[in-house]
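User: Run a structure prediction on this.
Assistant: Running it now.
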Amino acid sequence: MVSEYEMKILAEQLGRLPREVRAIERYCPLGHPQVIRVYPLIGEKPFPTLFWLTCPSLIQQISRLEYQGVIEIVERLVQVDVSFRARYHKDHRTYITERWAELSEDDRRWVEAKGLRLVFMERGIGGVRDWDTVKCLHMHYAHHQARENVIGRWLDDHYAIVECQAKS
């Protein structure tokens, strides 16, 4: 359960009140939220991002990496490194399983009745259709912080991502 105080912090971090927050998955060393888990259905629309990065410092650092072209580097790695690609595909499968399990029984029935099951069963992290592409580093890093994700681990191993730069 996310407290009213934590929701206030999340709103400050994101500049808006996030919808359908189920939990704070990770806190920084100073106790601020870093990653939230979001319900995979918002209103009557599938929401593809189960884990959402909220830490302004991490968001800024990951944005800088995207700006520097790191998505293309990672996509190339997925293409040429068979082991990395296999772990990446496993991350997608694990994510799909967890996102589906997060739905209530009633919502699963609703999803099936609306013909949306394939959206949940085939689209990977962040709703990506082509599992050999990388849509956004933020969602992979959030997934890595909450669970395990080969791209997030690779980012930690190759870039100086600082977990917490907050003053209080």
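The two ends are 23 Å apart (CA to CA).
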